[in-house]
Amino acid sequence: MRTRVQTRTIAAAATTLILAASSAHADGDAKHGQKLFEECRACHAVERGVNGVGPSLYGVFGRKAAELDDFRYSPALKRSGITWTPQTLDAYIADPQKAVPANRMPYAGMPEARDRADLLAYLQQAFK
Q: How do residues 59-112 score in pLDDT, each as one tens digit?
């Protein structure tokens, strides 16, 4: 049984890790990332509650995968256990099928790490 102090310590550590992860991708070029997002916009929106072929990405950082009630996710993504952080999104965007085999996202991936950093910088900026 965890005490309140242990729970607070764990929560503080998790917050620190998330913030550190965010700053690791904050050095990307958000302006270039916005241009890259145009490819994503065919399926995704950054506005709250606007689902297309893919779910809205509004508020994605810190959210569990397949958590939105108003979108039909693949069973693979529902079972993934992923919480979206800059690192998990980076891995997913690099190769969605490798990150979550049998997911429904029909995207081959973004192989260039610099492009992914730019895209993530844009997303982080868009949700501030």
A: 999 999 999 999 999 999 999 999 999 999 999 999 999 999 999 999 999 999
| CA 66-92-83 angle, 5° bins | 45
Angle between helix 86-94 and 4-25 (nearest 10): 50
